[in-house]
Amino acid sequence: MTSKQQNETLKQFREDAGRWRVFSDGGTDKVNVSLMRHQAVLQGSASLPANASFLDVGCGAGQLVIEMASRGFKASGIDFSPEMIAICREKAREANVTAAFECVSAFEMAPPGKPYDALSAQGFIEYISPAQMESFFALASRFVADGGSFFVGSRNRLFNLCSLNSYTQLELDLGTERRLLQECVLLAGTARPEDVFDAVAALPRLTRHPETHPSTGIKVSSRFQYTPGELIAALKPHGFAPVSVYPVHYHALPVAVASADRAELHRSFANLMFHEAGHDHRLVPNSSSFVLHLKKLGRA
User: Fold this and answer.
1) In what order do the strands lie in the sheet with 53-57?
2) CATH code given to domain 4-285
3) Domain spans in the chain, listed from the N-terminal domain onward
């Protein structure tokens, strides 16, 4: 039996498939978080061997899969919206690339004959419950080859402290602001990634999640958020170790200002910071999203 959240998510992406196609192609006057996440995956995949296998879970309009295929990867994508998969296949034909797409839930996909060299999940874990996320991470551990890469994108819960809006009030009501602030201080004040990853993963896990979230225009009432430290800690038992974290959608201006009369300035600066400092984890607290790149450790 599917949950209310899953039903809302499927309805959203079936009805808005055409709009997501335009958005994935860059046709928006807003900061394109999807393309930034994709660029992070492309950068992190640069060291993979030629013809490496790649799977994108919740592939949406298929832009990342198609780009990976154009670079010589054996690329495939899954999504549970048939409208999205139809767009993926059409776009692959237009781009004249070979890429495989399947309409299936991440929890129902068949195990690959050989583990993937890289697996990506961008804009996916926000639409499943924390318990389902744990199950998905166990699945990822089985699907990724030893030494392979896992890229997981998340809405950034740390940013709630900086947004100074209803999301900030939500954390104040839950009493989670001190724990979030501790991770912000560690990320912003520690220069070496290898030092900060252990520190943030050692912080207590956030056990309080709101049942519903303030609206962002997506008609799904629960869209979960996580911090880099939470995800690193959650993935460690499944054999994954962090490599890097990419800040996505940096905010130099307060949200209220950026969304009102300074929207173009905000977009220009967000794009500039992603281009110039896309690997700098110190920017994560002021970024609304992030992509975590992890390696699957081999057995001792």
Assistant:
1) 100-103, 74-79, 53-57, 116-121, 144-155, 287-296, 240-250
2) 3.40.50.150
3) 4-285
